[in-house]
Amino acid sequence: MERILITGSGGQLGTVLRKALIDKYGTERVVATDIRPRTDEFGSIDLLNAVDRNGLENLIKEQSITQIYHLAAILSASGEADPVRTWDINLKSWLNVLEAARKYKVEKVFFPSSIAVFGASANKVDTSQTEYLDPLTVYGISKAAGEQWGNYYFSKFGVDVRSIRYPGVIGHESLPGGGTTDYAVEIYHKAINNEAYTCYLSKNTALPMIYMADAIRATLELMDAPKEKIKTRTSYNINGLSFTPEEITRSIKKWYPNFTVEYQPDFRQKIAENWPSSIDDTQAQRDWNWSPHYQLDDVSNEMIAELRKKQNLLKEV
Ligand code: SER
To answer: What is the pLDDT of residues 212-241, one digit of tens each?
Structure first.
């Protein structure tokens, strides 16, 4: 009998992962929490600040939690505004989760890591699983350290920690907040409103990205894989697709030929330049058969269709 806890349920990934977990396990088995509580069509998202160790432990005990998806975090761009607070929120909460998992024998724990763990020294093209990690953002530092803590709790205490280094996630269901890859979602919102977009990255900056449906499928496939198949307990590189702002613009123009983009790089350009432009995910392919389904025009096709649907529904109201 699985009992699932999600932290950061109201975030970009949390919103969609929660729905996927409810579809898989049933509403009553999924305990959704966030620092901003609210109620929506799937029920309530309860208040939980995962930095509050007692609050977290009580919930895990009372609800007999068997799996945790710890999605609460501050992302790369907004994290730079207050590095110490970002470290506290990202890392303290993760240690609380690991400790609680150890104490209360939670069966599986999921930790979202990121391409942000790579920095200036990493090869930028087809960056490998075992590439040198010297992240330049506090978000990247917290994820790189978090990976090591996950591996430590696995090796030392046998906690079944599983993790993915997500590329930038593109989806129509929810909005990202405070990331360096957010432009790849914002740009579609502008296009369907027939507005021009001002991009904060330069036109040739390639970054690894993944479509939401692929990101969710990867998460569930990794968590469902037999334990003995999981050879990496830090975090798995996964590939989706890679493109530059100019390439995504070209793709969007197939639907909106008059769409225009202006480039005004800001501080996020430097963050992006130190990240990989593409990812090697051979190990995820080998260990748990990972392969992405969505390429750039598939993403554009679905993003535009789904955002238009939402727009039309809003017009009808
Ligand atoms: N999408 C994240 C960010 O831009 C990277 O994991 O911060």
So the answer is: 999 999 999 999 999 999 999 999 999 999
Question: Which one of 139, 142, 274, 279 would you pick to mutate in the ligand 1 pocket, going by the greatest count of ligand atoms within 8 A of its CB?
Answer: 139
Q: What is the pLDDT of residue 57?
A: 98
| pLDDT per position as a tens digit, 120-175 | 999 999 999 999 999 999 999 999 999 999 999 999 999 999 999 999 999 999 99
- Say how far apart CA 267 and CA 77 lie, in whole Å: 8
CATH code of the domain in which 161 resides: 3.40.50.720
Give the H/E segment covering residue 211.
strand 207-211
Place of tokens 């506090």: 138
Which of 13, 71, 76, 200, when mutated, tests ligand 1's pocket best, judged by the most ligand atoms within 8 Å of its CB?
76
168 lines ligand 1 (CB under 6 A): yes
Q: Is 112 helix (H, G, I), strand (E, B) or coil?
A: strand
Query: Is the Cβ–Cβ distance between 127 and 278 less than 8 Å?
Result: yes
Whether residue 77 is found in the same domain as residue 197:
no
Hey, what's the torsion of the CAs at 123, 166, 222, 62, to 10 degrees?
140
Among residues 25, 69, 139, 236, which one is catalytic?
Answer: 139
pLDDT for 40: 83
On whether both 47 and 70 belong to a single domain, the answer is: yes
Same domain, 138 and 121: yes
248 CA distance to ligand 1 middle (Å): 17
Three-class DSSP category at 70: strand
